[in-house]
Amino acid sequence: MKSPNRILLATSAGLGLLGLGACASNAQAPAASTAPVAGNGPAADYPVVIGDPFTIDGVTYTPVDTMNYDQVGYAGCEEAGVTGVTGAHRTLPLPSYVEVTSLDTGRTILVRLERRGPMSNDRLIALAPDAIAQLGIGEGAPIRMRRVNPPEEQRAELRAGREAPPRMDTPQSLLEVLKRRLPPRGSAPLGDPRQAEVSGVAPTPEVIETRDPNEEALVEDAENEAEEPALTPAEPPAGRPQLRNAVEGGPARAPVMVPTDPDGKFAVQLGAFSVRANAQKLAREVQGYVEDSGALAIVRVGPFATRGQAEEALAKLRSRGYSDALIRPLD
């Protein structure tokens, strides 16, 4: 892409200036990065735009479709004219949906990424004023941001300019662990270290910390401590012989205290595996069960009597990082 070391600010592309005063910006991404928002329904999230590489202060950012994006860093604020619970990010597809957590309070909200930005290398995301207000933070606040796949009804709320329901608050024990991963400036990946390359920031000690396996264990332990105790196991449902493959209490034990029903009509599916051992491992982590489908082992949580209960479990599972989970009706 033809670009000097700094991208000049352009108003002709239809993108507003990013920030005034404390939210000042000094560069702009390519106009092709703007994602159209049309109508409602799932089609309103398409086409998904990735865009060309661009440069800010000598750092080149290459937009890419990263599924397991999960980082800690600092939030910036956008100008007053930007509306909705929306945000700007440099590399994720537009639109994308992310959970943003305040590392000061644990409050977590759902944000729709619609623009390229922020145009400062020391901010991970730029939030619209409505998003700033819902999250209850200010310019430069420490945050965690991870990509998620929310249900359509929550996407529709954000597309309409309204707030989606708040996510589960992050417990203090996990916040303390996340703060230890927070660099003095810039951002640091919590998952795949290749995210540092995706973000366009070289993994130097000043910006990206080295991953410590012991610290990863602390994050996992803190998330496990945050879970509420599981329900007492019940008898497996009749008429579903596949449930003999249930793991450690099986379908009667849902995570995050969502009531289950042996005769329920809905379940939350987390994945299908060709290697049964991998399915069993995931099922133990979520207190789910394994069902066979041909050569595949399918991991599910439930069953649930109503779709509303299944959606509650789905939201809580996604808040724990299982972003590919979805609801499946049971025959």
From TrEMBL:
One of its GO terms (molecular function) is peptidoglycan binding. Transmembrane segments: none annotated. Keywords: Lipoprotein, Signal. Residues 263-327 form the SPOR domain. It comes from the Bacteria. Residues 1-24 form the signal peptide. Residues 215-228 have a biased composition (Acidic residues). Pfam families: SPOR (PF05036). The keyword Lipoprotein applies. Gene3D superfamilies: RlpA-like domain, Sporulation related repeat. Residues 183-247 are annotated as: Disordered. InterPro entries: RlpA-like_sf, SPOR-like_dom, SPOR-like_sf. This is Rare lipoprotein A.
